[in-house]
Amino acid sequence: MSSVDSFKRLVKLAARAFYDDISTKGDNQPKTGRSDNRGMAVVVLDALTRRQSVKEEDLAKDLKLHSKQLRRTSRFFEEEKFAMRDHCRETAKSAKVYNAALAATGDGQLNGNSEEKMKMNTHSYCCLDYAQIYVIVRYIIHRMKKKLKDDMEDKNTIQKYECPNCKQKDFSLDALQLINMHDESFHCENCNAELVAESDKTAVEEMGDGDDNARQRMWEKLREELRLS
Fold this sequence. Notes:
One of its GO terms (cellular component) is transcription factor TFIIE complex. One of its GO terms (biological process) is transcription initiation at RNA polymerase II promoter. Residues 7-138 form the HTH TFE/IIEalpha-type domain. This is HTH TFE/IIEalpha-type domain-containing protein. Belongs to the TFIIE alpha subunit family. This protein has 229 residues and is an alpha+beta fold. It folds into 2 domains: 3-91 and 122-135, Arc Repressor Mutant, subunit A (Orthogonal Bundle); 141-228, no CATH class. 46% of the residues lie in helices and 12% in strands. The chain is built from 8 helices and 7 strands. It has helices at 3-18, 40-49, 56-62, 67-79, 93-105, 112-117, 130-154, 213-228, and strands at residues 54-55, 83-91, 120-128, 161-162, 179-180, 185-186, 196-197. The strands form 3 sheets. It has a 3-stranded antiparallel beta sheet. Strands 4-7 form a two-stranded antiparallel sheet. A two-stranded antiparallel sheet has the order 5-6. Helix 1 crosses helix 7.
C-alpha cells in the first residue's frame, strides 16, 4: 500500500471516528429530523479522497447536494484544518467559447456585448491537506487521552489493578498504554489478560458512551494507521 493510500485510509477512519454525528447546518437553522444532515461530513471527506482538487460546484453536483450545503461543509473542514480551499476568478463558459470563436476569425476587437461575456466569476476549489490531517488526528487522540486521564483523576478512580492470570499487581491508571481500544479495558502487559480491580470498589467506566463494536474497531484501525503512516 502506498503512502497516499495510507493517508486516504486515515481520512476515512477519522471521518467515521470523529465526524459521523456532526451536523454542519447553520446555527440559526433548526436541526429537524427531515433536514438533519449528519453523515454528510463523512460523505464529503470520502469523496475528497477520490479527487486531488475539485471545484465545489462540481462536487456538489456529483454528490447531489445543494451548493450551499457543500460550501458549508467545506468551510467546516477548512476550519478543522482537514481541507484547503482556493478561490479563483474565472471567465464564464460563454466567454471561453466566445474567445475561441474570436481567435478563429482573427478579429481582435471587443465590442460592448463581448465585454459583458468576459465578466469574471469566482469559483472555489477544495482539496484535502493530508499532512495537516495527520497532525490534527494525532492531536485529537492526544487530547482525548488527556481528558480521560484528567476525568479519572478527578473522580478518584481506583489506581491498583491485578491480573487474574499471572497475578501481576500495581498497575496504575496513569499507564494509558494499558488501555485496549478494542474493548476499552485495561489489559496486562505480560499476558494480555483483562485486569480486575484489586479492591471491591467498582472502577469508573467512562472511557466510552457504550459505542458499538464497529466504533471500537474503528479506533483500533485508526491507531494502527497512525503507527504505519
